[in-house]
Amino acid sequence: MYDRLITPRLLNALRDTPVVLIQGARQTGKSTLSQRIADSGFAAEYFTLDDLPTLASAKNDPVGFLSGLRGRNVILDEIQRAPELFVTIKAEVDRHRRPGRFLLTGSANAMLLPRLSESLTGRIELITLWPLAQTEIGATGSHFVETAFAGDFPIRKLEADRGDTLRRALIGGFPEALQRRSEERRGDWFESYVATLLQRDVRDLANIQGLSDLPLLLALIAARATGPLNVSDLSRSARIPIVTLNRYLTLLQATYLIHLIQPWSSNLSSRLVKAPKMLMTDTGVMGHLNQTSLKRILSVPTMAGPLIENFVGMELIKLASWSRLRPQVLHFRTHDHREVDFVLQSRVGKVVGVEVKAAGTVDGADFKGLEALAAAAGDAFAGGIVLYTGDTVLPFGPRRFAVPVSALWL
After folding, report:
1. Which of 41, 92, 98, 331 has a CA that sits 20 to 30 A from residue 155's CA?
2. How far apart are CA 118 and CA 151, in angstroms?
3. What is the number of alpha carbons within 13 Å of residue 163 lying toward its C-beta?
4. How many CB atoms lie within 10 A of CB 12?
5. What does the angle CA 120 – CA 122 – CA 123 come to, to the nearest 5 degrees?
6. How would you classify the pairing of strands 102-106 and 19-23?
7. Rounded to an integer, what is the distance from CA 15 to the centroid of its chain?
8. Cα torsion at 112, 114, 115, 121 (round to 10°)?
9. Max CA distance (Å), the chain
């Protein structure tokens, strides 16, 4: 059992918000987390819409289903399977508004499915539960985000090993995959996971059966992960019309198979590339789709770069989700190819650049993109970091540091 570091934020939301939705990919632990919350003192009745009789009742008579629960706190698991409930939930909340009335979980991103979110605007708080972060897996704790904005990493050696970082990335963060003791067994799990998700959840959301192009499209995305999204190029490679491709991309985002990172912009935004950056939500799935093994990646070093960059990007997103600073995770790229892999922007507008390098050494040239970001951000620039696979935190000028990737979980 893993302690989820988003839990304090979830409990705070239940104390002052009528409806709280835990959203995230299947198998990230949403059901387990919601039941643990109930066991820890949040008194609520639990129902899952994966149970067919419960689903039939909720869809056929949403008013009657919820009226029978009036006066109690309710946990509704996999709410996206019965969107008919949202209007009724709104009516129940408006009739008697109190904190923690409904705790919902869903394997679809409500922000990308308007029917699931519009009716509850102003009444709901959305909390995303990502696959496990490395600091949750090891129960180590991490203050990387806060230290990055403070701009003061102490010089020290960390326990770091490039092979260990690659192994962590290839295993990913799904609890079930972590239980598999061999690459072969994890590969079987990833294969079943992707197939089930495409055959069930994506088709349920699309409400059509003809989605045979999706496995090829997902494989193409995995091969291009960490690159900018070029819809025209992807359309040609997948032989899918652009209109259809955009719909498929929305479905893949809605089911948390892929994640798009938006570009950071400033007053100089006209000089910046505005395409989002594509990430796979889990690098275990990414490695499986790319047919990447630890042995293969160690023998072909060029394969490591995109995997480690995607791994770092998702770790930053996870850490940001429970950080008190709650920064956005963005990216920076100019038309003359100066770029920073990830940009953390706090709610007050402070900016930290994070460049990722798969090598075990760093030199001044690795900070060129960070200097371009510093110039664009001006006084908002709080620091620049090159994350690398070495073992020592090293200064490279004021608020510039080379930091081992393992600092994300140590």
Report:
1. 331
2. 40
3. 5
4. 12
5. 60
6. parallel
7. 25
8. 120
9. 66
Q: The tokens of 247 are what? A: 């719909």
The residue behind tokens 């919601």 is 34
180, two tokens: 């598999």
pTM of the model: 0.94
Per-residue pLDDT of the chain (410 residues; tens, 9 = 90+): 899 999 999 999 999 999 999 999 999 999 999 988 877 778 888 999 999 999 999 999 999 999 888 878 999 999 988 888 988 999 999 988 899 999 999 988 876 666 655 667 788 999 999 999 999 999 988 899 999 999 989 999 998 889 999 999 999 999 999 999 899 999 999 999 999 988 887 877 776 655 788 999 999 999 999 999 999 999 999 999 999 999 999 999 999 999 999 999 876 555 677 899 999 999 999 999 999 998 899 888 788 999 999 999 999 999 999 999 999 999 999 888 899 999 999 999 999 999 999 999 999 999 999 999 999 999 999 999 999 999 999 999 999 999 999 999 98
Beta bridge pairs of residue 103: 20, 75
Q: How many residues are recorded in the chain? A: 410
Closest CA to 80 of 216, 217, 197: 197
DSSP code for 202:
I
Give exposure, 42-70, as e/b (b: 16+ Cβ within 10 Å): bebeebbbeeeebbebbeeebeebbeebe
Cβ neighbours of residue 77 under 8 Å, at least 6 residues apart?
30, 31, 34, 46, 47, 48, 49, 50, 104, 105
First to last CA, the chain: 20
Cβ burial 254-284 (10 Å sphere, 16+ → b, else e):
bbbbbbebebbbbeeeeebbebbbbbbbbbb
Q: Write down the residue that tokens 């000028």 correspond to.
A: 397
> Residue 336 has which token pair?
């003359």
Nearest to 169 by CA among 286, 249, 255, 276: 286
What six digits make up the tokens of 91? 């009516």
Which of 88, 86, 152 has the alpha carbon at shortest distance from 114? 86
Distance, CA of 97 to chain centre: 31
Backbone angles phi, psi at 222, to 5 degrees: -60, -40
Radius of gyration of the chain (CA): 22
